[in-house]
Each structure stands twice: as C-alpha cells, then as structure tokens.
Design goal:
Elements lengths: L2 H6 L6 E5 L4 H16 L3 E6 L1 H5 L12 E5 L23 H9 L2 H9 L5 E4 L6 H8 L3 E5 L3 H7 L2 H5 L28 H7 L12 H10 L3 E4 L8 H10 L3 E3 L7 H4 L5 H10 L7 E5 L8 H14 L3 E4 L14 H4 L4 E4 L5 H5 L4 E6 L3 H8 L5 E3 L5 H11 L3 E3 L11 H12 L5 H15 L2 H22 L1
Parallel strand pairs: 1-2, 1-4, 2-3, 4-5, 5-6, 6-7, 8-9, 8-11, 9-10, 11-12, 12-13
Helix pairs in contact: 5-6, 7-11, 14-19, 17-20
C-alpha cells in the first residue's frame, strides 16, 4: 500500500516523540512501539519522569543509539505521596492527584517540543493538552490507544467522551452492547464492573475526567493508533473508525522480542527453569495478575484455595503494588510445596510462557499479557480485575481462546470451586480441547506471526514519511 511512499521517503530518518501516561501498563506499550520504530532506523525521544525512566527495562544495545530518554520532573502536588511518579506508587484515591501533577509537566513538554524538530508526537489519553501544543507547532500528532477497540467502542463517539458520557451514567447503560454495535455479540459489562466503569465520566482531583481527556486527545489528533490485527477481528475495529470519523491506524499487537526482553542467564530464570524442568509437558499453570491492580483479599483467598483444589502444578508470579495489604492464606505455600511455586519478585514472563511444561495461563486479561500468551499458543484462564480487562475477557471467551472464571455478577466475588473448575477444564479436561486448539490457531494465524506485526508498523512509518514529505 505504501511502497511508493516508502521509496519517496527512503533515506530520511524520522524523529518521533513519545509521551505516555504515568502507568506501566501504558509506558511499556509505548516503549514497544518505540522499539519497533527504532528497528527501522528512526530516532525516538521518550518523555517521562526520572524515576519511571530509571525503572524501564534496559534498552537493547543495538537500539540504544536511536533512543533519547527525556527526564521531566513531576511537579510537587500537595497530598501526593513523596516520590510517587506512577500509578503503581499510589492508591486509587490519589490517581487524580497524579494526573494533576502530570498536567503540571505541560510547560516543560511544550518547551521540549518547541526545540525538538520532531516529525511526529505520539501521546496518551491523559496528555490531552499535547495535541494543541503540537498543533500550534505544526507537528503531526497521533493519539495512541493502548486499549483494544472493543473497550473504546463502548465509550462511543469523541463527543460522547467530551460530554463525559452524560447519557450513560447508570450501570444498566453498560450491561448490554451499545445501540451502535450492530453485529452479533454478547460482550458487555456485568453489574459490579459497570458501577466502576461509569466513573470514567466523573471529574477527579485534576479537574478533568478520563473520558474528557480521551475525547479531546482523540478529536484533536491527526489519526488514532491502536494495537490491532485484522487477522484476529475487524468488526470492532471498523466500528471505531465510524464512531470517530477519523483515520484509525492498526499497529499490530506489538509483541515483544525475546532477545530484547529476557536474560536467559538471570538468577531468577535459572531458578525458575530448574523447577519447571522437573514438570511434565503442558502440566503447569502459570498465574500472573499484573503489578498495578490486584484482587481483593476475599478474591485472593478463594483463588489460592482454588489452586489447591485443582491439584495441578502451578507457578504463581505473586507481585502486588507496594501499597497493597493482601496476602496469601496462612499455610498455603507449605501445603502446596513441591506442586506449586510462589515467586514474589520479577519473573521473565516470556521465558516462562514458552517453557514446554506450561500448559495454561491464569491472567488478569491485560492485553499485553494476552498477546504474550497467544503468540506462544498458551490457552487462557481469565480473571479480569479492572477497566478494559473485563471486556478483553468477554471477547476472548466468546472466541474460545480462553475461559473466564465464573463470578457473582453483583459483587464480583469468586469461589474456589469456580477457579478449580475453570483451570481443570482449560488444561486437562477433554471438553477443554477447544481452548487449547484455539490458542494454537491464534499463534499460527495472527498473534505469533512476527511478519504480520512488523508489516503493520512499517505501514505506519511509511505513513509518517509521507506526512513528513508534505510538511517539508
């Protein structure tokens, strides 16, 4: 599609500025996109706070010269904990203060952009004010949506977002597909989820709602970028373009490269691998529920007892935010010793998922983790915790790539029996063969095909080259 454009722009090295929100669930997808662009020979300026940049994975040596990390201090805000620079450093009650501090970076970001000679700026939902700065400077601007299209489709048009979803303030408004979804699907929120989702239309301590930020950022962009593959689904994606009346550019799923993310000689991996090597092929359940949101204590307790009931070997990457007080049930690790391993530090997730002994992944349904599992053909047991994760689980369940753990629709509670049943059905029961088959099929036809994802990013780069040519 862009081959002629690519020839016209051959030799030009683009300078792309990246500015994600202060959550590692956002920072890391921005970093993966940056690496894809850098592999094609272009320059990246990656803006964040000093502590967040320090916490990033080390840049691969062959890409290091393409990266400039721009450290902009986070302004002090009364009430925001000392040294809090990301969502993993604060509780839900302080998210609005973190956004207020983030907004305080505006002058420094504008100063950098003014002197950057940037060919494009790619920004996140919270940085809605970047779009007007870039517009004034004549810099092409792209809103990067890290969420899958179905989550954004539920929110409606940019006008709906800017109006803070004023016509959808009741949980019942989100418990069935919106009226603009004309294709057949049962994907929707449950009552306990919808009660929380309606909050995206409420102003927080920053003075803005998440919905408003996203609506302005999208409406003032030249185009919307989204992690998407036509090889998996098209209906939700096509609907998004109709809702926004704007170009929506798919980027593929930005799957990480093994050699750039994992250290095979790390002490963590050596110890974990030794344990995995003792287990039979496909027998181990891997559990990881993200590092920024965790189940509440009741859910965690039932999850642990469910793992006991399943009688399957398991490896649990038990990471939680520093502010979290949840803990494993007394005696759990002792009772499951040998059959189970609880690892409380960082784990090399890709290495674990591709180990022969791993036969299932119990996940919070964050899209990055889903991509990593399906690119390796590992079937999913889905236990979503927040936001887009709930709809991700419904879509994956509907496509039989995973099975969602049954829970109470009113309060979100789970039972140990429902956990054990879901785990055993996906991993060992005959009727779970369809989940294992679909996961392998996903690996072969979309998620695991590196060439597909590289092509999407190259098409986007060629789009930028053409845009840059017009601006010369």
């Amino acid at each position: 599609m862009y081959s002629d454009m690519a020839e016209e722009g051959a030799g030009k090295k683009l300078h792309i500025v990246m500015f994600p929100w202060l959550a590692f669930g956002h920072i890391l997808p921005f970093l993966e996109l940056s690496k894809f662009i850098a592999r094609e020979g272009h320059k990246i300026s990656f803006i964040s706070t000093p502590r967040n940049i320090h916490r990033l994975p080390k840049t691969p040596p062959h890409l290091a010269s393409s990266f400039t990390f721009v450290k902009i201090p986070l302004p002090k805000i009364q009430g925001l904990p000392e040294n809090a620079e990301s969502t993993m450093d604060v509780g839900p009650e302080d998210q609005g203060l973190l956004k207020k501090a983030y907004d305080g970076m505006e002058d420094d970001v504008a100063r950098f952009l003014r002197n950057s000679c940037a060919d494009a700026v790619i920004y996140d939902f919270s940085a809605f004010w970047v779009s007007s700065i870039a517009m004034d400077l004549g810099i092409p601007r792209f809103f990067f949506c890290i969420f899958p299209s179905w989550f954004m489709d539920f929110c409606g048009t940019t006008e709906d977002l800017i109006d803070e979803l004023k016509d959808r303030k009741r949980p019942e408004d989100l418990m069935s597909p919106p009226k603009w979804v004309t294709f057949g699907t049962k994907v929707a929120y449950k009552y306990y989820e919808a009660k929380l989702i309606v909050g995206v239309g409420e102003k927080d301590a920053s003075g803005f709602s998440d919905a408003y930020r996203g609506g302005i950022g999208i409406s003032q962009s030249d185009a919307v970028l989204i992690r998407h593959c036509h090889e998996f689904e098209t209906e939700w994606f096509n609907l998004l373009g109709n809702l926004y009346q704007k170009e929506v550019i798919p980027l593929g799923y930005l799957p990480p490269h093994f050699q750039e993310t994992e250290n095979p000689s790390s002490d963590n991996w050596v110890s974990i691998k030794e344990w995995l090597d003792t287990k039979t092929k496909g027998s181990v359940l891997y559990i990881a529920l993200g590092s920024e949101a965790t189940p509440n204590q009741d859910q965690l307790t039932e999850l642990a007892h469910g793992l006991e009931l399943s009688q399957l070997p398991f490896l649990w990457a038990f990471r939680k935010p520093a502010i979290s007080t949840v803990k494993l049930p007394d005696g759990f690790e002792k009772r499951t010793e040998g059959r189970g391993m609880v690892w409380k530090g960082w784990v090399p997730q890709l290495n674990i998922l591709r180990h022969d002994s791993v036969g299932g992944f119990l996940t919070h349904s964050g899209w990055a983790s889903v991509v990593e599992a399906l690119m390796l053909g590992v079937p999913l047991i889905l236990l979503p915790i927040m936001a887009d994760q709930w709809l991700n689980a419904r879509v994956l369940d509907e496509n039989e790539m995973g099975l969602e753990v049954a829970r109470n629709d009113e309060d979100g509670s789970i039972s140990r029996d429902s956990v054990a049943w879901a785990v055993r059905r996906v991993m060992v029961e005959e009727e779970g063969h369809k989940f294992r088959y679909k996961a392998k099929e996903a690996m072969e036809h979309a998620f695991g095909d590196r060439g597909i994802h590289d092509r999407y990013v190259r098409d986007f780069i060629n789009h930028l080259l053409q845009k840059s040519k017009y601006n010369e």
